[in-house]
Amino acid sequence: MNNTIYLSFIGELQRNIDSNKGLIQVVLGPRQVGKTTTVLKLIEDRYSKRALYVSTDDVFNPNASWLREQWSEAQSGGKILFIDEIQKLQNWSQSIKALFDESRRQKKITQCVLLGSSSLEIQKGLTESLTGRFQLIRAHHWNFAESKLG
After folding, report:
1. DSSP labels for the chain?
2. Which of 4, 29, 59, 67 is the most buried (most CB within 10 A)?
3. Tally of domains within the chain
4. What is the CATH number of the domain that holds 50?
5. Phi, psi angle pair for 123, to nearest 5°
6. Is residue 3 part of a domain?
7. How do residues 40-95 score in pLDDT, each as one tens digit?
């Protein structure tokens, strides 16, 4: 892995994906810290053949049925589902919980990575709906060493 490209949180995300413990990976951080750019680079370098990347920014009024379609596509193709800007999907945590629990019951585990801002809404969704179903990875502002890499 080329260390000049990745921010520090990516190593943890990659280890969690590769260990595939069946938990949702949640990457949270403030806006403009490089979450999307770095995850897209990771997908390109490591998971391109088995990743489905979607963003709620690319969809007008993303809803539970849109999310179900993405989940189903990832599941049927054996892909890792990366969902960017998850907080923009109404009732996102309840929808993710339902899909996750249904996949477990069917014994068809779908790897899922959620990217979002550090908003209170995200924190609330994680603690109220997804307890015990996720691993949290915090993306912070670049440190001195990372800022010198670019």
Report:
1. --TTT--THHHHHHHHHHHT-SPEEEEE--TTSSHHHHHHHHIIIIIGGGEEEEEGGGSSS--HHHHHHHHHHHHHHTPEEEEESGGGSTTHHHHHHHHHHHHHHTT----EEEEE---HHHHHHHHHH-TTSEEEEE--S--HHHHHH-
2. 67
3. 1
4. 3.40.50.300
5. -60, -40
6. no
7. 999 999 999 999 999 999 999 899 999 999 999 999 999 999 999 999 998 999 99
